[in-house]
Specification:
Blueprint: E1 7-11, H1 15-26, E2 30-35, E3 48-51, H2 57-67, E4 71-74, H3 81-89, H4 98-104, H5 107-117, E5 125-128, H6 131-141, E6 145-149, E7 159-161, H7 167-177, E8 185-189, E9 195-203, E10 209-211, E11 215-220, E12 223-229, H8 235-252, E13 256-265, E14 268-275, H9 285-288, H10 293-302, E15 315-321, E16 329-332, H11 334-337, E17 343-347, E18 358-365, H12 369-382, E19 384-387
Helix pairs in contact: 1-10, 2-3, 3-4
Length: 394
């Protein structure tokens, strides 16, 4: 008989954390949602909330000691991972574990693990800790190539460089976009790929691994713009991706859902990145399969069986982005968007906007991927984000 934990602490309360919170409560858990600002999306539905600097080890330990959660569930990268390592030694359960959290929050650690230790195929890469090292490191990679902070999220600090004249500006952007005090960047060869996918990989308490149907996605400046499920892979490509995803998640250990990203280049499958938590591209699973990525994550970490994961109709997502900066927001076009059959929108509930900030997502399904994508794009275009001090007049 499974006895569910009564208390779950969520470190990070964005739109993905909001769906995790809802899934946890539906399975009988209470949730403490933590973030750096008040009224973050998950806080709007959680049982208890805490505002703190989660990169500060003292603050993070204090809040965990205060609430004594059964499970600590990181939902962001910017955490005092040393504190999590200490807390795990004291008996607190970190999901999937403190080591996996540490490795995957740093591009250099996860890339070294994948390429150097596990022998997975990756893009060629190098590191640099100052501008002089950057100019030397780029020589064997050539142009174009990508420069990223070793620690960031949602594409922050990423640049595509075409020549030596771009290097200084790319360095400055990477350092400015980095999380924490890191002054190290990763350079990657630019890969021309046929398809970029996320393979949601779920490790269960009994040691078994299951996979969701592959998700295709597109990014702009390193940030997800749209996704669709199922992505079109042949049997060889999918099996290769599954083997690679299981290889790295078995090394990381722990339980829960991992979002493992790959480039598909003809018959070649190239490892890209990994997150030990529900993935933004996986929002499409709310429409595209019988059990969403959020419930799968909770089932895995609570030890609840996952009988089968089945596709529904072909499905797609399209992000809803802010075009302006407002201290408070309202939305126009919701009624028009919801008039479309087999589609919906999720407004994340972020209290303010800035240009390019992800404020919601449109989800749709259809008889084909193309039909689902057309619907998702259409309903996303109906939504207009306006100043919250003005009447919405929807």
């Amino acid at each position: 008989m499974t006895i569910l934990p009564k208390k779950l602490m969520l470190l990070g309360s964005g739109e993905l954390g909001k769906e995790v919170t809802i899934a946890a409560q539906r399975l009988g858990c209470t949730v403490i949602a933590c973030d750096r600002y008040e009224n973050a999306p998950a806080m709007q539905v959680a049982d208890t909330t805490e505002v703190l600097n989660m990169s500060n080890a003292k603050e993070l330990k204090k809040i965990i000691y205060k609430h004594q959660p059964d499970l600590v569930v990181p939902e962001i990268e910017a955490l005092a991972v040393d504190a999590l390592i200490d807390l795990e030694k004291e008996g607190f359960k970190i999901i999937p574990n403190a080591r996996a959290t540490d490795i995957t929050m740093n591009r250099d650690k996860v890339r070294d693990l994948a390429s150097k230790k596990l022998g997975l195929k990756t893009a060629k890469f190098a590191y640099a800790s100052n501008k002089a090292e950057l100019k030397e490191a780029v020589k064997p990679l050539g142009f174009p190539c990508l420069i990223k902070p070793v620690m960031s999220s949602s594409g922050k600090g990423q640049s595509l460089i075409l020549n030596n004249e771009d290097l200084d500006q790319a360095w400055d952007k990477a350092i400015e976009g980095a999380r924490g005090n890191s002054s190290k960047v990763i350079l990657e060869e630019f890969i021309t790929f046929n398809l970029e996918i996320t393979l949601l990989t779920i490790r269960q308490k009994d040691g078994s691994t299951v996979f969701c149907p592959p998700i295709g996605h597109k990014q702009s400046d390193g940030d997800y713009q749209c996704s669709w499920q199922p992505a079109k892979l042949n049997e060889y490509q999918l099996e290769k991706a599954k083997i690679m995803a299981k290889t790295i998640t078995d090394n990381l250990q722990g339980v829960g859902l991992f979002g493992v990203e790959f480039f598909i280049c003809d018959e070649e499958v190239i490892f890209s990145e990994l997150s030990p938590r529900p993935h933004d591209t996986g929002l499409v699973t709310l429409m595209g399969q019988n059990i969403s990525e959020f419930e799968l994550h909770l089932r895995a970490i609570l030890g609840i069986p996952i009988p089968s994961i089945k596709e529904t109709l072909p499905s797609a997502s399209r992000v809803i982005l802010a075009e302006n900066t407002f201290n408070s927001v309202s939305y126009k076009g919701i009624s028009k968007a919801l008039n479309e059959i087999d589609s919906t929108i999720l407004i994340f509930g972020k209290p303010n906007s800035r240009k390019g900030r992800r404020m919601g997502v449109a989800l749709a399904k259809g008889k084909t991927i193309e039909e689902a994508q057309t619907k998702a794009d259409k309903i996303a275009s109906f939504i207009e984000i306006i100043d919250g001090n003005l009447p919405a007049n929807d």
